[in-house]
Specification:
By secondary structure, the chain is of the alpha/beta class. Helices cover 32% and strands 18% of the residues. The chain has a nine-stranded parallel β-sheet, sandwiched between helices. The chain starts with a strand and ends in a 25-residue tail after the last strand.
């Protein structure tokens, strides 16, 4: 197991992070963008028109202080089912000086929001990651994962290029649950012929899964988002110590 390496290849990419409600895709988008910020100034585009909570735009100021530019639809557009194409988002996608991370809802409605930009994303080159939490209702088995991916691909007119393994039950997660859930994602990866980009693991659990059982690169997660009735931690600086290596 090794932490993700941030080579020059990652620093020129556009990556769309999609996932069903409860998959953890927004936490992954934020943590991934913050990790990229060690080497560049990424754009994090909030295209999640599905989820009323857990939106990246709610952390925009804190993320900006850590080198991540958050771009979200205008407030009026944010209340529409499918916000239209905006010059700010389109400009961020078309530029090539900064890496771009898109936070996208993982159902038909969310996929349509991404699909509006599909011609530009194909021209620019875009990876589409589907976040799988095998402990959530829609992605508990191969059939659910397959159907979810099919909906995203149909709505976005883009192909899912990799899975992100994010097995968790929030506060009830332990190392054994991570390992057990990751096996489900590995089996789906083999059956679908879609590679796994990495495993997302909450930081406090990293020492317990560092024995090679995951056999994948790991994105260490700090959990920043909580529902309105909860309390979320501040975004520290830096997220990952400069001496953290693979």
């Amino acid at each position: 197991m090794a932490n993700l390496e941030w080579g020059t290849g990652r620093l020129s990419r556009v990556t769309a992070v999609c996932g069903r409600f409860g998959s953890g895709k927004t936490e992954i988008a934020i943590n991934y963008a913050l990790a990229l910020a060690r080497e560049a100034r990424p754009c994090l585009i909030d295209l999640d028109v599905v989820t009323p909570y857990f939106r990246t735009r709610e952390k925009a100021q804190a993320l900006a202080r850590q080198g991540v530019t958050v771009i979200a639809p205008a407030e009026v557009a944010a209340n529409l089912d499918t916000p239209g194409i905006t010059p700010e988002i389109l400009g961020a996608i078309q530029q090539t000086a900064q890496p771009v991370v898109l936070d996208v809802g993982g159902d038909k409605q969310g996929a349509r929001a991404l699909g509006q930009y599909s011609p530009y994303l194909r021209a620019r080159g875009c990876e589409v990651w589907f976040v799988v939490n095998p402990f959530r209702p829609f992605t508990r088995d191969l059939a659910g994962i397959r159907q979810s991916i099919a909906e995203i691909e149909a709505g976005s007119r883009l192909q899912v290029s990799a899975l992100v393994s994010n097995p968790n039950l929030m506060g009830e997660t332990d190392a054994e649950l991570v390992v057990r859930g990751h096996r489900v994602v590995e089996e789906a990866s083999a059956a679908l012929g879609i590679p796994i980009a990495f495993v997302a693991v909450e930081r406090s659990l990293l020492p317990q899964v560092s024995d090679g059982r995951l056999s994948r690169e790991v994105l260490p997660l700090t959990l920043y988002l909580r529902p309105p009735w909860g309390k979320s931690p501040p975004i520290p600086a830096p997220l990952i110590p400069p001496d953290a290596g693979p």
